[in-house]
Every structure is written in C-alpha cells, then in structure tokens.
Protein: pyridoxal 5'-phosphate synthase
Organism: Hyaloscypha variabilis
Amino acid sequence: MALHPPQNTGKLIFAPANDKTNSQADQYTKGALSLDQLDPKSPFNQFHTWFTTAQQNGVHQPETVCLSTASLPSGRVSARMVYLKELDSKGFVVYSNFGTSKKAKDIENNKWASLTFWWREMERQVRVEGLVERMSSEESQVYYDTRIRGSRIGAWASRQSQVLKGREELEGWVKDVEEKFEGQEKIPIPEFWGGLRVKPEMVEFWQGRESRLHDRFQYTKLETGEWKIERLSP
C-alpha cells in the first residue's frame, strides 16, 4: 500500500493509495445508479436484487455486514462484522448471544441499530438504520437447525464477550456441552441465543462514482408504511 511521504508530520499513515505507483486514491468506475433503476415501492425487493447480483458477480461473502449498536446513556458506539442470515418483509436478521454479548447489552437500553454492507467488487454499499426486535425461539430454531453440529454446540458453550483465563477454559465449556448432548442429533436452541431482526426506518443504496461524486438514494419509511425515495448529495 503506497503512502504519501509523511514530511515530518508525525503521521504514521497519510492519504494511503492501493497502487504502489500511484499516490492518488482509486476511482470508482464500475457503475452508476438512477432513480428508474430502483424498486419504486420496497427497499427489501431492491436489496434482494442487489444481493442476488452480488452473488452472481463474484462478491466475496456478500452476506457479511457491519452491525453497529450504541450504549445509553453514554452514547458509546460499538461495531462488529456479522453475517446476514435472513431477509423478510419485516427486516434484516442476524443471530447472536442475548445473554453476555456487548451488542445485547446495548440493545437492552437502545433499540436502534445500523447495518452496513460493502461490496468492493461492485463498488456498492448499503446502509440500514432501524429498530431491533428479538425473534422467537421457534423462529430461531429453524435457522439453528441448519448449522453444523460444532456451531450448535458452540452457541451453547460460548459466553460471548466474557473475559477468558485462556483458550483451555473455552474448550472446557465446549467439552461440557458435548457431553450434555452426546448421541443427540436434535439440539434445542439455547434460551439466550437467537435472531435479531433490524426493522428498517431508512435504507440507503450507494453506488461509487468517479471523483467521489457517488450516486446515493435513500428509502425513508413513512407513517403510512409506504417508502419515500430521495437522491442524496455525495
């Protein structure tokens, strides 16, 4: 990664560029976005179209998404990479530990969260902001049953975000759970684990353009339940 000379500024990194022979940042040239290319009624349908296109065009794990939450009353923000596992007419679903995770603690006091998808190969980004609701155990069990056995055991064993004395402590918890469910293929979902659905109030579709003059369109949910679409300045 090429860097501009620091020139005694004290900066460790300054205006990085991807090409070692080029001191300027990359330009986005792979596409454009106009209003007539968007689904006029539903950001869910529009997301599905973009997601399918990403899958078909070699985007690496397009389901990877940054989930951000904020703690109250401090307002301190936390973000982490997770996987989108479901999309329905209500919202975007990820799965997590409800008992000990940082995100769960944030959501207890602040139901607002955001999701950010970045699809580098297509120079596209999708931003989602909305309220979070916990899915029922019955809903979550459907997805849980699709996971490999080790991941189902792991959901029981991990005390997410808790300080560990060492790797062996985690491995001990895993061993205990394996013994508990030995010989049992159908494993019930832990009561402290399941789906989090982000129900959007805003969804933005972003297409990179040259000179940072990107195309941005924002769906905003109205009180009627319909969606308003507006172009945003880059």
Observations:
- The chain has one domain: 35-231.
